[in-house]
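Q: I'm writing a short methods note and want an example of a predicted protein-small molecule complex. Could you take the sequence and the SMILES for nicotinamide-adenine-dinucleotide and return the bound structure as tokens? Please keep the output block clean; save any remarks for afterwards.
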Amino acid sequence: MAGMTIFRNYSVSRYTNQNTLKMKRRSFIKRTAAFSSVTLLPSAVWARIKAGNLRTAHIGVGGMGFADLESIASHDSAVVSALCDVDSNSLARASSAFPKAKTFADYRVLFDQLRNEIDAVIVSTPDHTHAPASLMAMELGKPVYCQKPLTHHISEARAVRKMAEDKNLVTQMGIQIHSFKEYRSAVKLIQDGIIGKVHTVRAWSPKNWGYNGPAPAGSDPVPESLDWNLWLGTAPERPYKEGFYHPVNWRKVLDYGCGTLGDMGVHIFDTPYTALALDVPQTVMTECRPPNGFGHPQNNVVTYEFPGTAYTTDTLKWVWYDGPGAPADHEDLKLPNEDQLPEQGSMFIGEKGRLLLPHWLFAKLIVDGEYEDITYPELEEQDHYHQFVDACMDKDKTSAPFSYAARLTEAILLGVLANRFPGQTLHWNQEKRTFDESQPNEYLSASYRNF
Ligand SMILES: NC(=O)c1ccc[n+]([C@@H]2O[C@H](COP(=O)([O-])OP(=O)(O)OC[C@H]3O[C@@H](n4cnc5c(N)ncnc54)[C@H](O)[C@@H]3O)[C@@H](O)[C@H]2O)c1
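A: Understood, no commentary inside the block.
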């Protein structure tokens, strides 16, 4: 069970490992303590970055991490300098694409050895490692591109945001669709009032990043290529089971992932969240199966209520449907000509009509049950990855910095947490950063394992 608030006295030395790290503990602490006091990049480093290139370190280079690696490396100024993965097969594949980069299995060792040879860090690991790796990178003064959702726990989202702001670092969350013209165009249409003030958004994904079965019994041999202790990182110890966690399926498990809402919901909710200038919800309620202490529920209907903004009525209702069969039938989701709903997407319902936003295509306007033509705004192409590199070199600004991403993530994670209390309306106190109900507050923070 979640317990102590880990970031109150955050320090890099928390991550030192007495048991398994093949490094003398005392010297690691000494060195990490020395670099934890760094707050600004030395001016010589800035000068070099502005003049020429950005040396990048990539943590997690299998799956999406490999795509992130290629996308960052496609910027002329990026120089891939370090690769880190706990699976030697993923590391070998990335290393053969970028043979000059130094390779590591443990991000703590990478930071310890290369702190003066890297300028920016890309974190593309499973969700439970996002905050530990990003905080360590930022403590060294490094800009960070971190995959979505920004963190696994709500307290982590606040801690990551605070550190990025305190150190004034360039940051970007890996919601690359945020930069796509289709979604930016929907933001502009909504903010220009195409359907008037919005009172409800319904969004859906039939993907199934839940698991209703029991925790698997027994254990399987850990593959030779995998360092299971490093994969678990700060998360609770658990025996390795083939097919349950690494790769990809960790999303379904409470201790490592955030279910379908934490996976697809971040992308799909990003546009309404930006367009309607939302912050943190005041209530959240989930309909799903009772908690089983292991996996996220396979089907969820999550209803949020947000305080009103300039683009909404007095309050805004956001309803999320996920899992096989989603979304449930609803009058708001009926399309003209009995058209099929797109597989994933969202519907904005406003005072003057509805805007359908298929994931990730241009929006369609529906008024009085009929489609109406839209003149889409003319927008420039934007590359989410290059924007990050350019921002690190002081030539641009990121569009999904942690100041934004942490709020979006917090809103999403409140819904994920509500899965543990099906059918109960939970009231979130934004100022106190706690629920009015006491039990859910036990799950706001992580309890980090020493590894
Ligand atoms: N933005 C997008 O469109 C998008 C798409 C897919 C995944 N993602 C995100 O990317 C992240 C990774 O997802 P995935 O599907 O690639 O998962 P995955 O399990 O396929 O790959 C994760 C990789 O990270 C490595 N890894 C695990 N722990 C590590 C650690 N402590 N240090 C270094 N390497 C570690 C694994 O060995 C593996 O190579 C997740 O946060 C996910 O939400 C984003």
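A: Remarks, as requested: The CA atoms of residues 200 and 317 lie 5 Å apart. Residues 59-60, 62-65, 84-87, 90, 107, 124-127, 129, 147-148, 174, 176, 230-231, 233, 246-248, 263 surround nicotinamide-adenine-dinucleotide (CB under 6 Å).
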